[in-house]
Amino acid sequence: MSQPTTSPMRAAGLVLRRDLALAFRRWEQVTHPVIFFLMIATLFPLALNPKPSLLADIAAGVVWVSALLSSMLALETLYRADVDDGTLEQLTLTGQPLALLLLAKTVAHWILSGVPLVLASPIVAIAFGASGTANGVLMASIALGTGVLSLIGSIGAALTLGSRRGSVLLSLLVLPLVMPVLIFGARATDLAMHGDAANGPLWLLGSMLIFALTLTPFASAAALRISLE
Question: Is there a domain that residue 58 lies in?
Fold first, then answer.
């Protein structure tokens, strides 16, 4: 194993910048999840009765299921390209903390998949007649929830690298683990849509994000080493 010549934080920053630069050359990785999110969420008001009370009742569930499925679309690509070109094997040999490098890759994934959903969520909220306060809560909850999903998804993506049907297996692994995110995110959105305070569910989402930040990078590193063996 080669000796590191840069600090771990600088190495993580370089990985983050590299992933963002490569992604901006392949815009479909950014646009596909957000287009899917907008299509699914905005089709419901068109297909159902446009009665405001009905839309307010279903808004939280529709928006959050759409966001969850859209985020899942991008999870399989988290490590796949780097495995194909040998980048992940090189990262394991750099002598830098692998957990920190994978955390940088996960942050890049969230910027590319989660942030577009956060920015698109007010458009969806308008379709359901949400107020300005509800828009803010929706954006905050999706930002926290997609962050947790990216972190948990990084473990599943690392474990399924060697599988031919990795996308199906990845969904089976990740979806049960992110059900609390769906529940609390939808609850926060529903409370805001009806004019109630949503501090409780948002705090729970924030706590889940901190917990995921603490543990998932090390679990992802262990899973990646198993997959590369």
Answer: yes
> How many domains in the chain?
1
CB neighbour burial string for 125-138, b if at least 16 within 10 angstroms, e if fewer: bebbbbeeebbebb
**Per-residue pLDDT tens for 37-73?**
888 877 877 777 667 677 777 778 888 888 888 888 8
- 73-128 pLDDT, tens digit each: 878 778 877 777 777 788 888 888 889 999 999 999 899 888 989 998 888 877 77
Instruction: Confirm whether 2 is domain-assigned.
Output: no
The answer to whether position 3 is within a domain reads no
